[in-house]
Every structure is written in C-alpha cells, then in structure tokens.
Amino acid sequence: MNINSIGRLPKHACILNILLPLLAGLSVYILLRPDSYVSLIVSGPLHITYPDTPPEMSHGILRLINNFGPDICWSYSLTFAVYAALHDLRRPLLFTLSIASAVIILVESLQAFGVLSGVFDPLDLVLETAAAITAA
C-alpha cells in the first residue's frame, strides 16, 4: 500500500476533495445567509456587511445555491472523508456510499423531527445522494 495515496487517488487529491467543498459550503453561509449561526460568528470579526441581492444574478439561481449548495458540497465531502477512512475494506465504494447515505438520511430526518435546525426537503435527499454518488 502506498502511503501517498488513498485507494486510487493521491492523498492530496482526496484531501482537496474534502476541504474545497467544505469551504464552498461555508462560503454560501457566509455570503448568502446573514441570519445563520455561521455568518453571525464569522461576520463580526471579519466586518462583513450584507448587501441586497446582486442585480446580475437571478433570484432562482441564488435561491438554489442558497438552499441546496451547502448540503450538496457537504455530502460530497462526507463521501470522500468516509472513503479515506475506509478505503482498505474489500468493497470500499459500496460501504462508503452506504455510510454516506445513512448519514444523509439521518441528518434530514433529524431536521424533519425538529431535532436539528434546518428545513426537511425531499429534494435535499435526492441532491445530497446524487452528490455522494458523484463523489464515489
């Protein structure tokens, strides 16, 4: 086993596939969700002010990015992180998708029952699962 790779991927590529989507999802919270906990924590020290919606972007695209972007990014990162942790198993992709899907369903279910903040949306399940499959 090569210590510079995780499965078939170089280690740095796997790390980037975990970190970059996390940063992208975080940036959506910081830039488009001024009322979120993340924005409140980060905006103070960074002195971020929130202007109105940029006129050159349609509200439909912003709404899709705002509502689904972070979840898609985090599902993608989750899948890579699970694969990095479990790549030595006999069937790592199948097990990775199973674990990632179970976490996705658990988080959305906890939102549906009000245990976690957020809004349950069946489209979230579809898009998050598609992101996990894409990552695998």
Structure report:
Helices cover 70% and strands 3% of the residues. With 136 residues, the protein is mostly helical. Helix 1 (11-32) packs antiparallel against helix 3 (59-86), helix 3 crosses helix 4 and helix 4 runs antiparallel to helix 5.
Topology:
Elements: E1 5-6, E2 9-10, H1 11-32, H2 37-46, H3 59-86, H4 92-112, H5 122-135
Antiparallel strand pairs: 1-2
Largest sheet: 2 strands, antiparallel
Class based on secondary structure composition and strand pairing: mainly alpha
Strand arrangement across the biggest beta sheet: 1-2
Record field, number of beta strands:
2
Distance between the termini: 20 Å
Mean of residue pLDDT values? 81
Radius of gyration, in Å, reads: 17 Å
Number of helices: 5
Low-confidence region ranges: none
Strand content: under 5%
What distinguishing features does this structure have?
two-stranded antiparallel sheet; 2 strands; 3% strand; globular
Question: What's this entry about, in short?
Answer:
This protein has 5 helices and 2 strands.
